[in-house]
Amino acid sequence: MTEIVVFTGTSLSWEEAGSLLDADYRPPVKRNDINILVDKGGPDIIGIIDGIFFDRAAVAHREIIRAMKAGVTVVGGCSMGALRASELDTHGMIGVGCIYEWYRDGVVESDDEVAVTFHPETLEPLSVPLVNMRATLEHAVVNRVINQHQSDILLEAGKSMYYPDRSYHAAVKKVAESGLISSSEQDVIIGFLVDNEVDVKREDALLVIEKIKELAGSC
Asked: Which of 77, 150, 160, 172 has the fewest Cβ atoms nearer than 10 Å?
């Protein structure tokens, strides 16, 4: 039987992931988590979806490379997984999903594009990741809720915020205060963005699970 460990919980709940793939689900990966797995003999496949970014040391490139050299297949996407896969795909790490491609192709560069603050017990995200904001604003333009200029300034407003403070309400309010969105437009725009969020992180997390299922079936 293929031994699989997946680091997630923020972008995709363990319950939902577990309904799709039988694996050992663990909280967002941090420094030395993968070294510990390798020291114990390592699983066959490691999936990296979520990870710790700023408040504790992030998973190191060298420990992922060490795992791959030890024969572990490492798949990444969505959040920390997308970031590390874009940096280590030439070493053999498998990257999947839109966010991985954005990092790989230089569409986004900063770590905080995918960073969120989350509840320490439930792992539920408490802020909006910038990658979701990008996709949702684009969706709003397509649906003519906002125009491209408004989308651009709302995205800049999101970028200017510290990542735990990012929300659609905060971004719209900040732009409205500058007079670039009228008070009559605020509630309509906020309502659309909240109710029609394009959760690209969740979509990519599901792609990681699908890729691991595919690899496990071929083992």
From this structure: 160
Please give the single-letter amino acid code of residue 5: V
pLDDT digits (tens, 9 = 90+) for 28-78: 999 999 999 999 998 999 999 999 986 568 999 999 999 999 999 999 999
| Pairing label, strands 73-76, 94-95 | parallel
What gap in Å lies between CA 202 and CA 138, rounded to an integer?
A: 17
Residue 52 has, within 13 A of its CA and on its CB side, a CA count of 16
Burial of 120 (0-12, 13-18, 19+ CB in 10 A): exposed
pTM: 0.94
Is the separation of the CB atoms in 158 and 171 below 8 Å? yes
Nearest to 110 by CA among 48, 164, 163, 167: 163
- The helix-helix angle for 168-177 and 183-195 (nearest 10°) equals 160
